[in-house]
Write a structure and sequence with these properties.
CATH topology of chain B: Rossmann fold
Number of strands of chain B: 10
Strand order of the largest sheet of chain B: 6-7-8-3-9-10
Radius of gyration of chain A: 22 Å
CATH architecture of chain B: 3-Layer(aba) Sandwich
Structural class of chain B: alpha/beta
Number of domains of chain B: 1
CATH superfamily of chain B: P-loop containing nucleotide triphosphate hydrolases
Number of helices of chain A: 16
Distance between the termini of chain A: 19 Å
Radius of gyration of chain B: 17 Å
Order of helices and strands of chain A: HHHHHHHHEHHHHEHHHH
Oligomer: heterodimer
Order of helices and strands of chain B: EEEHEEHEHHHHEHEHEEH
Strand content of chain B: 25-35%
Helix content of chain A: over 70%
Number of helices of chain B: 9
């Protein structure tokens, strides 16, 4: 079998393709942002092969997963309460669109501001907690958030019936974003901005400081760094992403309800992060595609799609260091070694 | 006598186990003071208190820079570090996922002191290793990086916890040379058990035993004549 593959590889003009590919990939600018552009083009072209509703769901989920991924990968903080921060963004946008205005862009901005203010208030109190307590306190806060939306503030949020405002959303610069294909372009643009910003942060001095803090807080304190401030900033950026995902969710569906903050969603998000690859840029996108595809495909075969995803998760954790991204990197390096051996 | 650090009547305990008893020492500016004592005598605990990683049960630590004196007990460790008190821990642990360059950048960032040439003048080897990850450095190289990055922020006092421990004799010689070069520019407080090293570097020695300062040597001649073996 191996011999056959080698024979086929020998006949292909792989050497020149590989060298050209390597030249492009090794270029400074490509290394920095080219991968993001390629991924965005792939996502954009995917609309010809899969449904727009699937892609829109993937984009919203991947931004949400990025929030959890950044918190875990750069802050070393595992949160079982991320749906709360999604809910804050979603309900802030929903309240604006339901009660006050009709501009979706203002709705998103309000969602983001609410996310940042909420993260500042909550983060200042919980960020100092030990990582296990941090995870649990977040889970508890998530439950409180759920019941506030479901019961305490039901007068404003309509409880489990949720808030419907799809028809109140005005076009954005003349484009109706409530239409699936228009929303897709809007969501792809937002995804591009989020990926560029996250990449920039990961490559910046702040990214290095975050990684160092995650490795050893004490050592960083020796050098004069305030760990609290670093972790708070990571937490705020993570909450900002979750709130953004919440706002996009509200605009896409024109509806929000407390079930988006159900506790089981928190575990789902953490699983998606691990599936994609903790601390990687594209891991959340890959993880989201796999999770949503697994839900869609397996729900026809078995009742509980979680069984399939759970098994996949166990296999990935046992075989790859950084989820699917780690697995792909491993395959690529093996391929490179094989190619060099042939040469 | 110009004091940079004054530890006054410090007691410390881990839960109910008391480990330091009424410790009082004075560290002079731009001099090298050495603490000598057995393992478990309380040397590292004293360093942890000075660096702000542990609170004493009583007593004070007064740090004096050129402008003012202040009790630094209770201040967070990063604030103490930014005042100019830099702690080089015993574990020789650099950020293993980061390169030598990134490790130095991290140290330079809070104070914006990018005088890397100063570090390379003391440790030329670090220039060669600039793109190597911390995980692949030898013990000696790690120690060079740790001392080097502490020097980047122009510290007032360096706390070196057993800097020669576990290093090859050749590397120890090199480190002694570097410490001899910097000892007149920065105050040093070193925990050390290597007697020849103590005799070469120390201007003042404190002997610590079972959490108490049992002897103090203030004179170079006294230090050379002293038998430190009995404290080890």
């Amino acid at each position: 079998m191996n011999l056959m593959i080698k024979m086929i590889l020998r006949k292909l003009p792989l050497k020149s393709i590989y060298k050209l590919g390597e030249k492009v990939i090794m270029h400074k600018t490509f290394k920095k942002y080219g991968q993001i552009v390629v991924v965005i083009i792939i996502v954009f072209l995917a609309k010809y092969f899969v449904s727009l509703s699937f892609l829109n769901e993937v984009i919203i989920l991947s931004i949400f997963v990025m929030s959890c991924n950044f918190l875990l990968g750069h802050g070393g903080l595992l949160s079982f309460g991320q749906p709360l921060y999604l809910g804050v963004g979603a309900y802030a946008t929903a309240c604006y669109l339901f009660y006050f205005g009709q501009n979706p862009l203002i709705g998103i901005i309000i969602g983001l501001i609410a996310g940042v203010i909420f993260a500042l208030g909550v983060g200042a109190v919980i960020i100092k907690l030990r990582s296990d307590y941090f995870a649990l306190v977040n889970a508890a806060l998530n439950m409180i958030g759920f019941f506030l939306a479901y019961d305490t503030f039901a007068k404003f949020t309509n409880g489990l019936d949720g808030m419907w405002f799809l028809t109140r959303i005005n076009p954005l610069f003349g484009i109706d974003v409530t239409i699936e294909k228009n929303f897709f372009i809007f969501a792809v643009l937002i995804l591009l901005i989020v990926l560029l910003l996250t990449k920039h942060i990961m490559n910046s001095m702040f990214g290095t400081i975050c990684l160092a803090a995650k490795t050893d807080e004490k050592k960083l304190r020796f050098l004069g760094y305030n760990i609290f401030k670093i972790k708070l900033l990571v937490f705020i950026y993570s909450s900002l992403l979750a709130a953004l995902a919440g706002s996009l969710y509200a605009i896409h569906f024109g509806f929000v309800c407390p079930s988006m903050m159900e506790q089981e969603k928190a575990g789902e998000i953490v699983a998606t992060v691990i599936l994609g690859g903790v601390g990687t840029l594209f891991g959340p996108l890959i993880g989201s595609i796999v999770i949503i595809a697994a839900k869609d495909l397996t729900s026809n075969i078995i009742q509980h799609w979680e069984v399939i995803v759970g098994a996949l998760l166990v296999i990935l954790v046992l075989t790859a260091d950084k989820g699917m991204i780690g697995l792909a990197n491993g395959v690529i390096s093996k391929y490179k070694i094989n190619l060099r051996n042939i040469e | 006598m110009d004091k940079i650090l004054e530890v006054k009547n410090v007691d410390a305990a881990y839960d109910k186990a008391k480990v330091l008893f009424d410790i009082s020492i004075n560290i002079e500016r731009n001099k090298t003071s050495v603490i000598v004592g057995k393992n478990g005598a309380g040397k590292t605990t004293l360093f942890r208190i000075i660096a702000g990683f542990m609170k004493p049960t009583c007593g004070s630590v007064v740090f004096s820079n050129n402008e003012k004196s202040q009790n630094i007990v209770g201040l967070p460790s990063h604030k103490i570090s930014n005042l100019g008190v830099r702690y080089v821990a015993q574990d020789k642990a650099v950020f293993s996922d980061l390169t030598v360059k990134e490790n130095l950048e991290l140290a330079a960032y809070p104070t914006k002191d990018n005088n890397w040439d100063l570090v390379f003048s003391y440790f030329p080897k670090l220039k060669i290793l600039i793109n190597k990850k911390g995980a692949y450095l030898s013990g000696g190289e790690r120690q060079m990086l740790m001392i080097g990055r502490s020097l980047l922020s122009k510290p007032s006092i360096l706390l070196l916890d057993e800097p020669m421990e576990g290093l090859a004799p050749g590397i120890v010689e090199g480190l002694i040379e570097v410490i001899s070069k910097i000892k007149n520019k920065v105050s040093l407080l070193i925990v050390e058990q290597n007697i020849p090293v103590i005799c070469k570097l120390a201007d003042k020695v404190f002997a610590i035993k079972e959490g108490r300062i049992v002897n103090e040597f203030n004179d170079k001649d006294d230090i050379k004549k002293a038998t430190f073996e009995k404290y080890l």
